[in-house]
Design the sequence.
């Protein structure tokens, strides 16, 4: 495993009751690298992402972020780390329905005590980069699925995270909108130097990623191993 890896998972095992979700998954992500995680439904992709992000603790195995053992941190340390260094995009944006799109994107900055004016200025900049500045004043219920996901990407990137976790961010979109979200996410990550861990079923993902990893039965494989 390379010494300069930003985020490293070593031999993760995790079961939910009798069901093994991870059974020896390992992965190393370098700074700025875009890694696509593929694999059939139920193979453990989301669990792997959640372990790497410190949301789900593995039963055994270790996760290290910039050398620090995530599994050994307190809950408070892990949530602070997630807020400051990680960004998240889910399949259904999970935007706060009562807030406008601009307020949604500004929210992570507000939680870090950035003043409202500054937070909203930066939020607007990110909405602009994701080509959805026109929906800034609308609530998530008033925008299309594709627009909502681009707002969600803006929200994930606004804090300048080192790692973006995206779990099937285009899963609920048609292929045209899916590609647009993918292109904008990958482009923004490259500009900011954020690493991206992207779970996806998009067939054209190779165009947006540096590397593809396949999860099968809770284990990680390289594309060559499953071919
Ligand atoms: N919170 C949970 N409770 C119970 N079973 C779970 C939970 N999360 C995942 N699983 C099970 O673990 C396995 C892997 O799930 P998951 O990581 O969501 O796979 P994927 O994202 O590849 O579809 C599946 O069998 C799933 O049903
Ligand atoms: Mg999943």
Sequence:
């Amino acid at each position: 495993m390379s010494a300069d890896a930003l985020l490293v998972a070593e031999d993760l095992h995790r079961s939910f009751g009798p069901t093994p979700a991870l059974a020896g998954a390992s992965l190393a992500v370098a700074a700025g690298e875009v890694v696509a995680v593929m694999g059939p439904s139920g193979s453990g992709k989301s669990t792997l992402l959640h372990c790497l992000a410190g949301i789900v603790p593995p039963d055994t195995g270790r996760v290290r972020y910039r050398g620090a053992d995530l599994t050994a941190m307190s809950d408070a340390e892990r949530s602070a780390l997630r807020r400051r260094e990680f960004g998240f995009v889910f399949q259904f944006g999970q935007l706060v329905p009562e807030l406008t799109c601009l307020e949604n994107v500004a929210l992570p900055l507000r939680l870090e005590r950035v003043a409202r004016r500054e937070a909203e200025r930066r939020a607007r900049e990110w909405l602009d980069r994701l080509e959805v500045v026109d929906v800034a004043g609308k609530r998530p219920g008033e925008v299309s699925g594709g627009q909502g996901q681009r707002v969600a990407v803006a929200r994930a990137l606004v804090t300048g995270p080192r790692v973006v976790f995206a779990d099937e961010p285009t899963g609920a979109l048609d292929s045209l909108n899916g590609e647009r979200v993918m292109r904008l996410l990958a482009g923004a990550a490259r500009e900011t130097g954020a690493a991206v861990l992207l779970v996806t079923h998009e067939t054209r993902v190779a165009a947006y990623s540096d590397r593809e990893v396949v999860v099968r039965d809770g284990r990680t494989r390289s594309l060559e191993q499953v071919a």
In short: The two ends are 22 Å apart (CA to CA). The chain has a mean pLDDT of 92.
